[in-house]
């Protein structure tokens, strides 16, 4: 029987040991201040197996009871079936414990020490219910009335008896998932899942609002508000279409964990900004990059500096990424440089990898002695500065508009016409109505074709002084809507609210219906049309410096061709337009008389000389001169060398010596030994690409870089590919940072 019982000295509980403090090891017990019992060490391996020698469960410390219960559950009931059960005399009969009862009652235990039966279920889990179900007979005293075995069945009782309740607790403890600890973990896992669902829903809504540039907050976010703002309304829409989200968000979420407070929204937005910046830095890696910088004043009259990076990714694509907006106390070059260094330090960027700078033409940016570009080049002489091509084009257009009195007057009148004809909702509606009526009549008369997408409603485009490409759209609108604009001006001249407005409208109506105005209108449309295409091309993020110079050259050539061969076609177009709109066309051989001046004070020049020489030739020559003066980069040695990389016409501009000279512009990246290796690579490279069909139809350096990556030639000719990436990294325009200023209010908020 040793396998069921130990010696009595081993079965008894050890005497209480001394009380231990919190610094004792994990195998010792500590005092529980909430109980009056002294907590002693309990060795679960030494717990008595004989049910007659066990202490009551309630005699153990409250913090130890669950462990004791689990230990006895794992041991199962004490049923010594091989024991020789002793007889007891009941009158003339002797009776003893019947071991078959173990099979009938799985809860039954036998105590050899007391020759009595006990109930394991009730010992572990029985509540104090007085004398119900035999009281404590089967727990402490033991049952030994062997002549009445039916009391064993009586002890079990009904379905809700104290014994059966204890049995259910015993069975629950046998299931690991039903334990208190497992239940706690289960509850914790469920809470974690619900928390993640709420968080992901809020993050998804915020990502959508950030990408679309929408405001988060609403004017009234109370529960009874009909519109609680974009964030809450989007979250509610998401919950209405997803039952999992609906079950844990908004009203179904804990009030202290709803994940919708403004502070939470700002934290998630900040996290999104950090993750986006980290993704940009990860994509950049150790590649060379250029920095694009511009500064402007925000809505709170604080000076802000927008920063973007330009680099070539691993697939050979030119990438421009907006990195951030930095507040600067002033716009001096030293302050801007300190802000740039601080930004680079936060993102782990190094000035040694900087190979280009792109700014506007402000003195604090491109100053020869103390400008930002000079301060940076003192630390990295290979960080070459390129004046923004889009700014140079705009300066060229502004110079023409300001330096020629006739054109300056023309643009002033255009602005006044737009202000009066489209300055109020009433006049704008009248203009649209007149234009719609004219289009219907023209279609009916066969003057305009009809079909899907044709003859859409148009409006009078308003120009912007800082965006001269918008003036081109204004010219197009004036030509297209000219009769309707005249009708609106005549209506205002008759029914204007004030005499000043009526007089101004009448004067404008007479002026725009003159040959001089129409001539200038069509002339500037041609010139701005050439520069508009150039402006749109320069603002592309993937534009390279070689192609930009090519586009400038094409624009100059188009203007020169227009000067040499465009007079007759322009005069015919203007005359036809005047005939349609009943405007008097002067005889080109007559003496030119300026508007508002007497014929006695003429210069003796003919109309042909004035319009052809004083306007047509003069304006085009002025535009060509400004383009030549502004775009001087094409004459610099660096960009002349870069142009030799162009793959156009089977690499017609390839020049080995100039490409080696280009590498010498970057002494930190090309050592003397690498220059010799580059010389050999260039010989193999040009023979390889000229004999390959894949490289025969490439147009620009961007296409070349991508094709080299696709064909793995960036691995075969690494130094040549390095030259290509350096050329592509040189900035062209700072349109990326200027777009950031358009949304600076959203970015700040």
Automatic annotation (TrEMBL):
Domain TTF-type residue range list: 93-186
InterPro entries registered for this protein in UniProt: AtLOH3-like, DUF4371, RNaseH-like_sf, Znf_TTF
Region entry Disordered, spans: 1-61
Protein keywords: Membrane, Transmembrane, Transmembrane helix
Ranges annotated as spanning the membrane: 715-737
Regions of compositional bias (Basic and acidic residues) in chain numbering: 1-11, 28-41
Membrane listed as a keyword: yes
Pfam families, per the entry: DUF4371
PANTHER family in alphabetical order: GENERAL TRANSCRIPTION FACTOR 2-RELATED ZINC FINGER PROTEIN, ZINC FINGER, MYM DOMAIN CONTAINING 1
Protein name in the entry: TTF-type domain-containing protein
Organism this protein belongs to: Fagus sylvatica
């Amino acid at each position: 029987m040793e396998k069921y019982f130990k010696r009595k000295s081993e079965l008894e509980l050890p005497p209480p040991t001394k009380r231990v403090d919190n610094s004792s090891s994990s195998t010792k017990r500590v005092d529980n201040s909430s109980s009056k019992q002294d907590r002693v060490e309990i060795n679960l391996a030494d717990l008595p197996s004989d049910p007659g020698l066990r202490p009551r469960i309630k005699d153990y410390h409250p913090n130890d009871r669950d462990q004791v219960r689990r230990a006895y559950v794992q041991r199962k009931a004490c049923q010594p079936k091989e024991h020789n059960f002793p007889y007891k005399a009941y009158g003339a009969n002797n009776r003893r414990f019947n071991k078959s009862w173990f099979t009938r009652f799985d809860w039954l235990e036998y105590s050899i020490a007391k020759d009595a039966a006990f109930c394991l279920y009730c010992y572990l889990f029985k509540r104090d219910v007085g004398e119900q179900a035999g009281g404590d007979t089967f727990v402490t005293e033991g049952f030994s009335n062997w002549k009445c075995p039916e009391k064993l069945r009586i002890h079990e009782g009904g379905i809700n008896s104290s014994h059966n309740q204890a049995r259910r607790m015993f069975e629950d403890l046998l299931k690991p998932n039903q334990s208190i600890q497992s239940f706690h973990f289960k509850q914790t896992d469920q809470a974690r899942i619900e928390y993640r669902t709420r968080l992901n829903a809020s993050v998804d809504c915020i990502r959508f609002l950030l990408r679309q540039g929408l405001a988060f907050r609403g004017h009234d976010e109370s529960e009874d508000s009909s519109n609680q703002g974009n964030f809450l309304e989007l979250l509610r829409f998401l919950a209405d279409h997803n039952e999992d989200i609906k079950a844990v968000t908004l009203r179904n979420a804990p009030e202290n964990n709803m994940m919708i407070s403004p502070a939470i929204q700002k934290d998630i937005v900040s996290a999104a900004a950090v993750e986006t910046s980290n993704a940009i830095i990860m994509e950049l890696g150790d590649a060379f990059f250029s920095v694009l910088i511009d500064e402007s004043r925000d809505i709170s009259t604080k000076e802000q500096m927008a920063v973007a990076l330009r680099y070539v990714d691993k697939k050979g694509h030119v990438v421009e990424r907006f990195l951030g907006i930095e507040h600067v106390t002033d716009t001096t070059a030293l302050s801007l440089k300190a802000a740039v260094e601080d930004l680079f330090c936060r993102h782990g960027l190094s000035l040694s990898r900087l190979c280009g700078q792109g700014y506007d033409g402000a003195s604090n940016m491109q100053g020869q002695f103390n400008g930002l570009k000079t301060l940076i080049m003192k630390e990295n002489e290979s960080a070459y500065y390129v004046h923004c091509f889009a700014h140079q084009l705009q300066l060229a257009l502004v110079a023409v508009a300001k330096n020629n009195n006739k054109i300056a007057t023309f643009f002033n009148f255009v602005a006044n016409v737009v202000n009066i004809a489209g300055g109020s909702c009433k006049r704008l509606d009248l203009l649209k109505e007149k234009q719609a009526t004219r289009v219907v009549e023209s279609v009916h008369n066969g003057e305009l074709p009809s079909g899907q997408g044709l003859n859409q409603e148009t409006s009078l485009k308003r120009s912007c002084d800082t965006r001269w490409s918008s003036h081109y759209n204004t010219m197009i609108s004036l030509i297209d809507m000219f009769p309707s604009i005249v009708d609106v001006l005549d209506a205002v001249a008759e029914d204007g609210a004030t005499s000043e407005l009526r007089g101004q409208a009448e004067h404008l109506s007479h002026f725009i219906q003159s040959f001089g105005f129409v001539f200038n209108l069509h002339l500037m449309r041609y010139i701005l049309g050439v520069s508009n295409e150039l402006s749109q091309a320069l603002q592309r993020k993937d534009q390279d410096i070689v192609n930009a110079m090519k586009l400038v050259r094409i624009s100059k050539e188009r203007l020169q061709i227009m000067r040499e061969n465009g007079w007759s076609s322009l005069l015919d177009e203007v005359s036809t337009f005047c005939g349609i709109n009943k405007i008097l066309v002067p005889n080109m051989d007559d003496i030119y008389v300026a508007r508002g001046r007497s014929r006695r004070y003429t210069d003796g020049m003919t109309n042909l000389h004035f319009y052809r020489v004083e306007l047509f030739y003069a304006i085009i020559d002025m535009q060509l001169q400004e383009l030549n003066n502004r775009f001087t980069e094409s004459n610099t040695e660096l960009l002349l060398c870069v142009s030799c990389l162009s793959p156009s016409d089977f690499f017609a501009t390839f020049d080995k010596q100039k490409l080696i000279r280009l590498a010498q512009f970057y002494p930190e990246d090309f050592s003397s030994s690498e220059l010799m290796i580059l010389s050999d690579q260039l010989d193999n490279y040009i023979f390889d690409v000229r004999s390959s069909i894949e490289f025969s139809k490439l147009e620009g350096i961007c296409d070349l870089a991508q094709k080299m990556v696709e064909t793995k030639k960036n691995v075969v000719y690494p130094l040549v590919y390095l030259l290509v990436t350096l050329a592509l990294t040189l900035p062209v325009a700072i349109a990326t940072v200027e777009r950031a200023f358009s949304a600076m209010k959203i970015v700040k908020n």
